[in-house]
Amino acid sequence: MIELSVVVPVLNEADNIPALVQEIRTALEGRLAYEIVYVNDGSTDRTPEVLAGLCRDLPNFRALHHDKRSGQSAAVRSGVKAAHGAWIATLDGDGQNDPADIPKLWAKMQDLGGGAVMIAGWRTQRKDVWSKRIASRLANRIRVALLRDETPDTGCGIKLFPRAEFLEFPYFNHYHRYLAALMKRQGGKVVSVPVNHRPRGAGKSNYGNLDRALVGISDLFGVAWLQRRGSIPRVREEA
Questions:
Q1: Within-domain flag for 145
Q2: Which of 70, 156, 201, 218 would you call most buried, defined as having the most Cβ atoms within 10 angstroms of its Cβ?
């Protein structure tokens, strides 16, 4: 039985895929039963061919393909819906998240007893360009002030959470940036853990600072509206 599904959304990341997959395998092999689920979000480079080769070579590797670019949130959602594991770990496909941190997140989850808990990565020493770091820091402050999700780095791609809880989140584009707030809205717990952060391996980012800011403003107020409409109660059946 698969315990953990590692979901990785990718868009034109052909040169980063093989090394990251090997790192995931190195981090998890022999520790727990896992699978790797890559979601190709309409890539126009060699990403489909690279994923096809890995599907042939690795028994616990799966690849999903969007017929057109639909965004990172849609790719994460597709991967989680198709996953076989009860727990999901997400990673960005550019290699900046370190798969070696997944066992740390898994151990923290077990220490907390599992349940409705999200373990969120916290990039305490980011390796991005200065403009991206400043934009993210400002966005985090605004988000925390408005949503009070008490998460210092909601934009970090490495997270661990229960599949069943995720599938209860209301879906909207770009909601991958608000998973912590959505988990807390459902009565769950969010714990941030410092993780390693690395320079991008190859290629270039698919999103700029302006892009993030423009789509983030309406989303931020939308999530705040969801919070005001009331939280979701936890349900316990009498034994």
A1: yes
A2: 156
